[in-house]
Amino acid sequence: MTRDDVRRALQEHDFAAAFILIKKWGGLSQNRIAAACQLTPGKVSTIIKGQHQITSIEVIRRIADGLRIPGALVGLAPRPWESTPPDSPPADAPGERQPADDDVPWRPDATVALAGNLTRSDLVMDRRGASRALAAAAVTGTALLDPLEAWLQPAAASPRTRRVGRLGARDVEQLEQTAQAFRRWDHQHGGGLRRKAVLGQLAEVAAALNEHQTDTVESRLYRVMAHLSGTAATMAWDTGYQRRAQDYYRLALRSAHGAEDEVFGANVLAGMARQMLYRQQPQDALELVRLAQEGSRRVAGPRVRAMLHTREAWALAAMGRTAAFRRATAQARAALAESTAHDEEPYWIAYFDEAELAGVTGGRLLDLARQDRDHAEGAADHIRQALDRRGPEAARSHALDRIGLAECHFLAGDVTGAVQETHRAADAATQTASTRVRDQLGELYSYTVGHSKARAVRDARDRLRELLANR
Fold it and tell me: Which residues lie within the region annotated Disordered (predicted)?
């Protein structure tokens, strides 16, 4: 309850805004809010949609006690529990088990076993298992970083015997095309709609690697498994499964290691860094980026180097290191300028162009603008460049750009422009099921709280509230 937007909503008895912000920052579902406050889920839904105003002191007391809101925030006397030491944090949900990834050096057969275990458990996951997966927090710090050092070491030999496999070059080519298609679909649309299909394909590739293939086929299969695992990770993250996303990122990194593909491994580490940045762990993100840069220094092309510099810049911006952010951004721009149409870089980095660089630079300037509003105009300029250059084809990126531009207007004090961009952001958000987009909408929503007298802002807030209530 330390966030200013949450406190303002509670002080104004705007429980619609409060519930939406508590969902975002507290990680509570509508059902959990309902259970804690002794309300029905339907009642919570009508409150969030603005269809029901809470005026009963008894209900306000139940909300305060159920969500541990200090009485003073909602106009009540201090609650009895405020003088009682807080409960210990709950342990991880039962049944959540980290896959074995602490073998050093990494063994390819352990990587294949990890793929089989992950896909098998996910493909049969029931609603209770899904709830546990949603509740599992992402790993951070030493527990995350130290096991990944094995990426820099050669793989260990696999001491097992296997059946002779029958896959040929044509079979592997079809698998590669399928992995590319899934990756393109995820980049365009976001969300986890095809996640089960990706997991099914990943399970088949793991089964093929359990057989003895030729060296060439085996190496290509590990690369396919890395690409599919990376896509599974982003889909899990987009569906809200933070810990599971990390599991698939680890599998992707180990698979790239098995394929001796340092460049894709660096891309996986960059994805893990981005997840840490969304979890407000910039130091972990910086460590991951530097591990990626160290492992790919001799083989990364200009676009990959540029992408890694932007992730470095992101972490530095999040840490408030403005000068270092500008240095890393300049390095990204210089690296991208080295790329040509004839460079033989992997298909998966083709998205990183001038539009992408403008978008990520605008996003990082927006991070700085949250601390110093003088950066808001520069952030808006870069985000507009990204919107002009790449259009709405990549739905998730387009929506995030629109949300960022609306936030820039709020930070600059341009309420009229902010309202216009908020409606455009809401339109864009309907085109993707990404939870990242939903989370950023929740961030944007907080700017509309406290403008109760401005009709245009209230209308924008109602629009966001409806979107957030239905996602």
Answer: 76-106
Instruction: At 212, give phi and psi (nearest 5°).
Output: -85, 105
**Structure token digits, residue 67:** 């969500």
How far, in Å, CA of 326 to CA of 317, rounded? 9
3-state helix/strand/coil string of 369-409 = HCCCHHHHHHHHHHHHHHHHHHCCCCHHHHHHHHHHHHHHH
Q: Are 313 and 328 in contact (CB under 8 A)?
A: yes
How far apart are the C-alpha atoms of 165 and 93, rounded to whole Å? 39
Separation CA 144–CA 374 (nearest Å): 35
Spatial distance between the Cα atoms of 129 and 327, rounded to a whole number of angstroms: 45
Q: Give Cα 337 to chain centroid, integer Å.
A: 28
Give tens-digit pLDDT for 66-93: 888 888 888 888 888 776 544 433 334 4
| pLDDT tens sequence across 176-198 | 999 999 888 877 666 556 788 89
Strand partners, 212: 164
Look at residues 6, 17, 2, 4 and name the one whose alpha carbon lies nearest to residue 54: 17
Angle between helices 376-390 and 354-369 (to 10 degrees): 150
Helix residue ranges, H only, 279-353: 282-296, 302-318, 322-337
Which DSSP helix (H) or strand (E) runs through 419? helix 415-429
